Amino acid sequence: MTETIYKGRTLHRVSILGAGESGIGTAMLCKKHEIEAFLSDHGTIADKHVVELEGAGIPYEQGQHSVERIFAADIVVKSPGIPNDAPIIKDAVAKGIPVVSEIEFAYLFLPAGTRLVAITGSNGKTTTTMLTTHLLRCCGHDAAACGNIGVSLARLVADEPHAVYVIELSSFQLDNMYTFHPDVAMLLNITPDHLDRYDHKMENYIAAKLRVFQNLGPSDLAVYWADDPVVAPRIAGMGIRARLCTFADGHAASVEACDGVIHDGIGGMDIPVAGIATRGTHNLLNAMAAIAACAKIGARAEAVAEGLNTFAPVEHRLEDVATIDGVHYINDSKATNVNSTYYALIAMTTPTVLILGGKDKGNDYSEILPLVKEKVHDIVAMGLHNEKIIEYFTANGIPVADTHSLDDALAACRAVARPGDTVLLSPCCASFDLFTSYEDRGRRFKAAVHALATAN
After folding, report:
1. What angle do CA 171, 177, 179 make, to 5 degrees?
2. Rounded CA separation 418/125 (Å)
3. For residue 162, what is the domain's CATH number?
4. pLDDT at position 1, please?
5. What are phi and psi of 208, to 5 degrees?
6. What is the per-residue DSSP string for 260-292?
7. CB within 8 A of 8, min separation 6: which ones?
8. Closest of 198, 167, 170 to residue 181, by C-alpha
9. Is the pLDDT at 253 greater than 70, yes or no?
10. Are 273 and 262 in contact (CB under 8 A)?
11. CA 285, CA 440: separation in Å to the nearest integer?
12. Which residues contact 451 (CB under 8 A, 6 or more apart)?
């Protein structure tokens, strides 16, 4: 096997911290390239991952971190869920051991000619990642979606190589990426999120997101929303060497939507807005960003238009669930921050009962207050600690029901919803107080609603 070198250091041994998808993918990539790997998880490793590790003959531990063994490595690949101020990370850095993300590590093993589209933002990442992948496939590219979306880049590189990777990146992943160099880097928007991870300082979070542009060169494309009040003013001072590509609705930009047509200034395509299957302003913006990326990689207008028309909405994002007694139920569990709920409320066209709650990440609910007053007649708070939601919205004249389980929340919704209303689960918060993930929250919500429909 060819030696793998990272910043002048030959990689003979790799320590992997965390046994989630990124950690297991990294382990399998090490196995493929005959690099000695050791995986350590301070918690409990899922049974399916234990089976996979043992089947591949990869040593691992759970319930502890054996520091001496971990620090015997040439590089540490950490789960994005482990903060950089965790003692084991700080100790590794102090010993001069590089600590990187799984994306950074997998990048080392990509063959020449591989094309990369990197997508980040506070909201819209998953939809835009899936849409971009779908459009590229419609244009005949061998494209795959990966990253924060649920499948690790490392696993695909090890087991299922592709010519183009469309990678959803969280700020946590970007924190530990240093040499990764995409062909297209996309920053959809920045709104307050994960501030608990960034010392409750917005500038720290912004700096993490802007890292997506850090290694671009003159032949690359940097895509961003022209109207984002956080991103747009900072771009000029960053010294980005790539071609800058803005997208905007209603006014001039590199990719613009005007008079019912998306005009693509990168590839010269004109795409009718009416053909986009997903509705709403946020989805139009996502589509323009995706079109810019496809134009850079290589696209045909007819294939892109077809792809926009056939794209299926992402699960847990404004997902229709059922109508019961004339009340429509929508699953928007992926709305884990205030700005995401803002766009969900914009899309509401009927009187709404809004389910909020979960693990608050330093939320400022004033952003959605005007829309709540306009469209929401009742809020149901669902979480272990609802005090902040109750205090803020009751002070602004919005009735709030205090519930601590999904069943109780749905019962509260049923008590106040009227025929013609919409019950919208768009929580503004992370899920980790009552659920294991936003996916778990959304799927349990759908199951409970379907059970109500059956019982009815």
Report:
1. 145
2. 34
3. 3.40.1190.10
4. 60
5. -65, -45
6. TEEEETTT--EEEGGG-SS-SHHHHHHHHHHHH
7. none
8. 167
9. yes
10. yes
11. 27
12. none
pLDDT score of 432: 86
Which of 32-36, 37-41, 194-198, 402-406 bottoms out in mean pLDDT, i.e. has the lowest? 194-198
Q: Give 453's Cβ-side CA count (13 Å radius).
A: 14
Residue 49 has pLDDT above 90, yes or no: yes
* CB contact burial 79-97 (16+ within 10 A = b; e otherwise): bbebeeeeebbeebeeeeb
Collapsing DSSP to helix, strand or coil, 428 comes out as: coil
Q: Does residue 36 lie within any of the structural domains? A: yes
Alpha helices in 21-149 (DSSP H): 21-32, 47-56, 67-70, 87-94, 102-107, 125-138
Q: Per the domain annotation, does 1 fall within a domain?
A: no
* Beta pairing partners, 224: 187, 246
- At 193 the three-state DSSP class reads coil
Domain boundary among 59, 77, 100: 100
Q: Please give the Cα distance from 296 to 290 (Å, whole number).
A: 10
Per-residue confidence (pLDDT) for residue 278, from 0 to 100: 85
Secondary structure tally for the chain: helices H, strands E:
17, 22
Whether residue 380 contacts residue 354, with contact meaning beta carbons closer than 8 Å, is answered with yes
3-class SS of residue 143: strand
Query: Does the model's pTM come out above 0.70?
Result: yes
Which of these three, 52, 72, 100, is where a domain ends?
Answer: 100
Output the domain CATH number for residue 419. Answer: 3.90.190.20
